[in-house]
Amino acid sequence: MIRLPARLTGLIVAAGLALGMATPALSAGSPDAPRPANVPWSFSNPFWGMFDRAQLQRGFQVYKEVCSSCHGMELLRYRNLGERGGPEFPEAMVKALAAQYRVTELNDRGEPAERPAEAKDPFQSPFPNKLAAAAANNGKAPPDLSVIAKARTYFRGFPLFVVDLFTGENLMTGPNYLYAFLTGYQEPPAGVEVVEGAHYNRYFPGNWVGMPNILADGQIQYQDNSPQTVSQYARDVTAFMYWAAEPKMEERKRMGMFVILFLIFFATLLYFTKKKVWASVKGH
Ligand code: HEC
Asked: Which helix (H) or strand (E) holds 103?
């Protein structure tokens, strides 16, 4: 081991502490966008956190009825909605759902022809391309939401980023931000310069966002008796977006737990094997 002079060690510790104290100030982001609060997601635990099936189904309903008129999710296929680890809609329902959309393909004469979508087809986007999407939304194209839950994040600062290594909460910054964003619309504070064609959102970086506040209490009729509030809609659609970004999460965690249990079992086995093999050797 390298031995450092006591004074140098002290200096290193002091520098480390100073840096640590300074980080929250640096990481708090711009003063106009506060750090989103933690939401207790059913899937946040890195070992056993799983999706709430009913929540994913409601989340899809919110996406379908509200968000899909502006946002695509082109990395999803309709059949994914029926697969294990997702909303797990029955197969017949998935087929019927896909049939509500139309796909344009080249036919045997090389001409574009429409047909009803099937379970194997990707989610159909509301606009033919980004330019058309921007043109219809005051110049700001609504981003595709397939992986948005992983594409948005924020730094949680010292010492949380150390604690996060054990709780996995740092992986939840995407959904925490999305929930905060969807519920973060408000009247602009007095004295703030109004941006034409944009809407004030507390959590959007820069505050002025091209997306209007589209969620309202009671707007979507749920089949179960979950509250029909903006907060619930936002939570459900965010869970759905997280699943879309990581559809194999449940499988990954289940396999991870299995591997860890196996390694514990295997290490125990090796330990006793070693003891037995070395039993006759002196000094062991
Ligand atoms: C009327 C069209 C419209 C609807 C409906 C709509 N959005 Fe948007 N959304 C937009 C536009 C436009 C932007 C781009 C805004 C910008 O970049 O300023 C956007 C941006 C976003 C972003 C990115 C925010 C960021 O940090 O960059 C998310 C996430 C989002 N929308 C989620 C949703 C969800 C979830 C729904 C359904 C509950 C929804 N949107 C419904 C138009 C819409």
From this structure: strand 102-106
